[in-house]
Every structure is written in C-alpha cells, then in structure tokens.
Description:
By secondary structure, the protein is of the alpha+beta class. It has helices spanning 10-26, 38-49, 58-67, 84-90, 201-213, 217-229, 234-259, 271-287, 295-301, 309-315; strands spanning 71-72, 96-100, 113-122, 128-134, 146-151, 160-162, 167-169, 171-176. The chain has a six-stranded antiparallel beta sheet. It has a two-stranded antiparallel ribbon with strand order 6-7. A hairpin with a 4-residue loop joins strand 6 (160-162) and strand 7 (167-169). It starts with 9 loop residues before the first helix and ends in an 18-residue tail after the last helix. Residues 199-233 and 283-328 have low confidence and may be disordered.
Amino acid sequence: MADPAPSLSSADLQQGFLKETQSLAAQGLPYTWGNWDCSGTTRRLYERVAGINIGQTASDQFVNLYRQGKVAGPPRDGSGQVNSQALAREMKPGDLIFFSNTYRPDPSRGSDVTHVMIYLGQNEKGQMLMSGSQQSHGACNPAGSGPDIYVFDPNQTKGGYQNGLGRVKGQFCGFGRPMGSLQDHAEPTARLNVAMPEQNRVASAASRAGEWLGGKPGQALSGLSQFFNSDTQQELKMILGFVLSLVEGFLGKQEKAAAAPQQQPPQQAPAAARAESRQQQAPAQETAPAPAQTVAQERQAAPQQNASPWQNAQRSWNIAPPGAGGQQITVAG
C-alpha cells in the first residue's frame, strides 16, 4: 500500500469523506456485490479523498493494516461490552471500521473480516457515524442501501451465519488507520450536521424481500442471499435462526433414532401353545416369584442412548471460530 499524503488533517479527511459519500448517495447507487459493496466503496472513497489504494476486499484492507501494526481492538468495559465513549476518543475520521463474521468467511482470504466502513466522527446528537456501503437505510440514499452515511453502534450485532451448533453473530472487531499511526492523538473535529432518520427495520426488510421474490428465479436467489446477509432485519434473523436451530435439533434426534439398532419384537406363538406354557410355568411362579423392579430402577439401569441434541450442543458450545488454524487471522471481538 502506498504511503499516504501527510498533509491531510482529521478535519480534511472528515469533510472529504463526508462530501464524497453524500455525492454518491445522491446518485441513488444501490448496494451491489463486486461494485458498490462495502469494500468497493471504501476503496473508491480512499482513492478519491486521499489518493491511496487500501486493498480490494474487506479482508485485504484489514490484513494490509494488520501487517503494518495499524489495527487496534475495541476498548471494553467490565461487562465485556465495547466502551463507546472510550472508542470515540481513540478513533479518528478516516479510520477503517472492521466487522467479522457478518457472513460465513472465505478461508482463502486470510481473516474473518467480512465488512468494512469508514469512521466519520460524531453528529450533533452525539451519534457515531460511518460512511460506506451496506444493505440498510442510511441518511440520504434514495435506493435504501448502498453508499451513504450510517450510524455506527459498536455493540450492535451485524449479520451472521449458522454453523450447525448455533448462530455465529457478526460484530465489530476493531479499527485500522491508513492515514498516520495509531499513536497519533485524535484531533478535535466538528460535530457533523447529519440527521439520521429512524427506520422501521423489519418493515423495510419485508418490503425488500417482496421486491426480490417478484423477479426471476436467479435474481430472487441473489436477493435472498443479500437479505440474509443484511443487517437491516435483526429481529427477523433472530426468529429465523431460532426456527432453524429447532429444525436442526429435530433432525439430529431423528438421525440418532434411525442409527440406533432396531429390536425385532418377539414372534408370538399360537394361542393354544401360549396357554399351555402358562399352565406349566404357574407353579414355578408361585414357589419362586421374580423380584419386582421399580420403575425408577428400570429408568436408572436403562442406557442413556437418546440424549437430547440440545444437551450435546451445550457441552461443545465453545467452538473455535472459522479459520483458526494455519495462516488465518482470527479477529472476532
């Protein structure tokens, strides 16, 4: 990555990224994979504002800065949550904001980073803002997604995927500084006059899903893929994830039952033979009655072969994140 121009201050970067992002948003460019997606937008914004190339994908942009020692993890409070106030003091306009596991990461890309945005600073309401492209409503893009200005909540989950044992949630995992060093103190910058509208995220997601399903099959499948990777409908995704986990638990129980050896019921003898056998065995039963076994003893002696799949999942819940071996860089926050 080329060395950045040293003449750009935090205020220059803040105003430069703000104006370029607003210009793109006014064109109504929607979020599109491989074009105006998250990393494509941050790359173009940095080329236009600072004249440098920060990398192709979100993972590339993270790895480039990681190798230079320009990536920092989020400060956390005693409860494990990101300390938003401390984070706002540490970050500078122009810093790249990295998210991990917003969808299933590609092991070949070298890290779990799957989403990236650019930090702008705070607005007059004290909200932390970021610029870039994602599949949700921002401040002014009429397309309802794509290049725009968005609220940055470091404790909000973003996307995720199902890995068989549960839901892996996407989350903010750190920030990087292409312009300057992490040791540089954050310069005071103006509060941005950017009002962020309140959005009904569930209604917005349902509307977009209906539009996607109305297209051709290929377009519908592409739309559904974007829908499930989006961060605009956490409520729906939580419900869908819960239903999916129930289905997987049921299927796992059925598979265990199918794999268990099937006991054949004993063949019944003719009625006359059964009656004669009972008459012959009756005296023996009177002189030597078999010891009775309580129901509790029978349950205790029975092997626990049909353990609940939920119990099995709880015993092995703390799994390693994707790509924890080899050259993979795991950055889950």
